[in-house]
Design a protein that fits this description.
about 230 residues; alpha+beta; five-stranded antiparallel beta sheet; about 45% helix
């Protein structure tokens, strides 16, 4: 072994330890290869895990060769790219180039992670979490019936952009109409609460509701006559 090769040894030792650690961390679907570019025909000097089916002494890949064809300082690490094994498995891959103290590229640490099964699961998960976009609904979850009433009233009042004390009679009637549509008054005690918020008596709320329901019945009858 030449003096130059000996000076590279600590770099490759660290790369090999890193490869082993990554596979121990990420499991059998992970493969990490260490290449020594001293001989590109048999550059693979260490492989942890086995996703691509290669052995020690295998040659460098075409992708790495394409990068090595560049000027020394133009060679860049290649993160997060898609590759495929001979068996057809899809992998996420990354290549980190190893350099000596002079900045010369002397090897590479190449990571391949088989994501074929994850892609299959991903398709099933995507189907499961898919929503009917035509069903736009909003639902809140409460711990008390008072919270339900409060939230429904707040939602409706927000649309008026003003304090209840500044609302006109028609606006208060419209507020009650919207609350009735939401089913607010099916909740016991809601009438009293809405009356307090709007600054009227609960009997006034009853009158609003009677007016609203009478108008709804009239509109229904008119529509029926014109069919």
């Amino acid at each position: 072994m030449s003096e130059l090769k000996k000076s590279h040894q600590p770099i490759f030792d660290l790369a090999i330890r890193t490869a082993d650690m990554l596979v121990k961390m990420f499991g059998s679907r992970c493969e990490v290869a260490v290449h020594d570019f001293a001989d590109l025909k048999k550059s693979l000097i260490h492989i942890a895990g086995n996703v691509t089916g290669r052995e020690i002494g295998s040659p460098i890949t075409d992708l790495v060769l394409n990068e090595l064809a560049k000027q020394k300082m133009d060679v860049e690490d290649i993160p997060n790219y898609k590759t495929q094994s001979k068996k057809g498995n899809i992998m996420k891959s990354a290549t980190i180039f190893l350099r000596d103290s002079d900045g010369k590229v002397i090897g590479a640490l190449c990571i391949n992670y088989d994501i074929s099964l994850l892609m299959q699961f991903g398709g099933e998960i995507e189907e499961f979490i898919n929503f009917d976009e035509n069903q736009v609904k909003s639902e809140s979850f409460f711990t008390s019936v008072q919270d339900v009433t409060h939230e429904m009233v707040e939602q409706v009042l927000h649309g008026f952009k003003k304090a209840p004390s500044l609302m006109s009679l028609d606006e208060k009637v419209e507020c009650v109409r919207q609350l009735d549509e939401k089913g607010t008054f099916l909740i016991k005690g809601a009438t009293e609460y809405v009356a307090t918020v709007l600054g009227v008596s609960k009997f006034t709320i009853y009158n609003y509701l009677q007016k609203i329901r009478t108008m709804n019945e009239f509109q229904t009858e008119v529509l029926a006559e014109h069919k």
